[in-house]
Every structure is written in structure tokens, then in C-alpha cells.
Amino acid sequence: MIRNREIARSAAGWTLVELMVVTVVITIVASLAFMQRGTTNEQFQRQNAARELKVAFERARFDSVKRRATAPVGFEPDLRAYVIVTSNSFTLRTDNNQNGVLDAADDLTYTFPAGVIAEGYGFSLGGSFQVFFNQRGESSVASDNPQFMICNVACPSPPGAPAVSNTVLVTPTGTVNLLGGGVSIPTFLNPTGQTTVGTSEGIKSEAVLP
Known about the structure:
The protein is an alpha+beta fold. It contains 2 helices and 8 strands; from the N terminus they run H-H-E-E-E-E-E-E-E-E. The radius of gyration is 28 Å and the shape is elongated.
């Protein structure tokens, strides 16, 4: 008799309660998988944006060194390549069309993906922040912390957190580094030991500092 009841219950299939439980479990698992996928995609977009900013700084530095770009004293034609960083984009300006001047036609602008922003590491962008590079490849703002946090949604207090931020660091000598969140910025001293060599020293003019 008991055996017949088990067979009858098995033949009846799933009950409504069992179907509801299975549906709830599937929904929860699918939601968790979707949330994890969204988080991974956001991290990838942030890391890619940080890499693009690093490359922009490196291109500006290379361009200034290649062209032996100079300025100020009196801000005469300022031919130094530079990068303008805002909270949601950055613009690279080099002599891209090789016409000997820097103008808007040379601009290459990268807009951060939705949910990715930039902030100064320990300073305010103030709307936008410019980093120039001279003919020796040195940063023009070596004493003003040209370091930037690239974050998902909002930047936590420096040094940020690995899960939501990266830091792009420009050293006084102009080298560019990409750091993970949660990493304290090392201290770099301004370059020293530079010597001005006169044009009468028998050294090629290309190697003489202005």
C-alpha cells in the first residue's frame, strides 16, 4: 500500500510549492551572477580608463622630448605637449598634425565610461588640471602632486581601495606609473644635478640645455 502511494505521488509530478521554491532559488542565483558580472565589467572599464590616461601622459612626454618643446619664461609660443584632466574626461594635446604649433586641431579627447570618474590624489581638479612636459620630459607640476585617482562612481579618500580605484602617478622626472587602489604614493624628490653647458664647449647644440 505504501509503495503504491509513493508511485502515485511520483506520477503526479512537482507540487506548486516545490515549483515556487525552485523558481526562487534560480532567481537568487541568477541575480548574484548578474551582480558579479556587473561588478567585473565596472572594474574593467575603470582599469582601462586609467591605462588610457597613463598612455596619454606618456605620449605627451615623448612628444615634448622629440620636438625639444620649450616655454615659459614669458610664455612665448608654449610648444610643450600636455594633458588636461577633468572629472569625466581627459584631453591630450601634442603637435599631432606636425605643423609646428599646438592648437585645438591636435586635440585627442577620451571620455570616461559611465560610472567612472577622475579626482586629484589629495588635491582638487578645480574643473580641470593641466600637466605639461618640457623638452627633458619633466613634469611641469612636480611640486603640485600630479597624481590622479580613477574610480568607480565616487572616489574614496586616498589612497582609495583596490576594488573601486586606481592611481595614475606622474613623477617629477616625468615617468608615469599606474598603481592599484590602496597603495600609498611614494615620495619623489625633484630632479637635481642638472648642468647648463655653454654653446662654446664643443658639444653639439642638440645636447645643450637652454
